[in-house]
Design the sequence.
């Protein structure tokens, strides 16, 4: 009986020890589950914050696109008005065709003859090209009517060809803006300047400094926004500029 009792007691002790191990493992498992649950909750909170931040950024991005598009439309209207005023000053009504006569020749240095040979308005790297742009993050589609050139602040901006100053002032969405009239319906636009060094009515020559690079009206830092237009329609500036 003693031997049987001793064996039963030993078996019971082993079972009790196993039960204690199981209890410890259960407690540790519960702690691990709780820690994992807290980790998941933290990740969910982080994801919600990140989603809210992305949504806010996209909202701001869309608002910026609307402002840029509105500014581009207003710039189109400004160029149209300036073009019309220039025609009236030269004795023609807006919308009226130029008087008949010989077309400008390459010998006379017409702007059209300089395609592919214009100097860059400022040295720098191309930040945004002309035409349809798809945002890599938001997938939004915009149409860029000019190019953007990354350049250090207060670097010289030069006229790409001879012309007269049609506009030289602040313009909403573009900051300090200069528009040059090169004749035959050709215009160039220079925006985001830190400083403008010409005034309306000035005659400028190719390579003449008309301003300094800046970030006025820019959302991307110091850069020059540059357009080439013919009769109000935007052209790809890179096709007009000398190979960089």
Sequence:
């Amino acid at each position: 009986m003693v031997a049987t009792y001793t064996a039963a007691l030993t078996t019971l002790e082993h079972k009790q020890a196993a039960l204690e191990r199981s209890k410890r493992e259960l407690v540790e498992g519960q702690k691990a589950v709780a820690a994992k649950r807290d980790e998941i909750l933290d990740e969910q909170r982080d994801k919600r914050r990140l989603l809210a931040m992305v949504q806010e950024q996209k909202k701001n991005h869309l608002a910026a696109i609307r402002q840029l598009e509105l500014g581009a439309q207003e710039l189109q209207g400004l160029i149209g008005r300036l073009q019309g005023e220039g025609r009236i000053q030269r004795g023609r009504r807006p919308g009226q065709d130029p008087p008949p006569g010989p077309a400008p020749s390459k010998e006379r240095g017409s702007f059209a003859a300089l395609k592919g040979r214009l100097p860059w308005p400022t040295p720098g790297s191309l930040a945004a090209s002309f035409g349809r742009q798809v945002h890599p993050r938001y997938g939004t589609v915009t149409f860029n009517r000019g190019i953007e050139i990354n350049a250090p602040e207060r670097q010289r901006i030069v006229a790409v060809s001879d012309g007269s100053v049609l506009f030289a002032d602040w313009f909403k969405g573009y900051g300090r803006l200069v528009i040059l009239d090169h004749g035959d319906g050709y215009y160039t636009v220079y925006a985001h300047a830190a400083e403008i060094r010409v005034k309306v009515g000035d005659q400028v020559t190719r390579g003449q400094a008309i301003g300094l690079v800046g970030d006025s009206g820019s959302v991307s830092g110091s850069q020059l926004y540059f357009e080439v237009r013919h009769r109000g329609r935007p052209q790809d500036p890179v096709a007009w500029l000398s190979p960089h």
User: Anything to note?
Assistant: The radius of gyration is 34 Å. Residues 83 and 155 are 29 Å apart (CA to CA). The chain has a mean pLDDT of 84.
